[in-house]
Design brief:
Largest sheet: 4 strands, mixed
Shape: globular
Amino acid sequence: MGKIILYSSSECIRCRIVKKMLNVHNVQYEEIIDNKQLMTDKGFSEVPAIEVDGKTIDEYTNVLHWMQTNGWYSFEEDNKNENN
């Protein structure tokens, strides 16, 4: 897999979930935080959004699906983490 860029906001709980799952699975990524102009220029309407080798994945459910496809996210893990 190529370069992963995570676009996020420091106030975004969903972004924290995505970062936590990436970190748990030791996925290397670059994070761009609170750069609203860049996110607007890329056409993102919300965060988190991810860019992989120039391909963008936006909207939270799409990001979770992409992570699940790569084995980096499961609803069981999310539920387990919420209970701790």
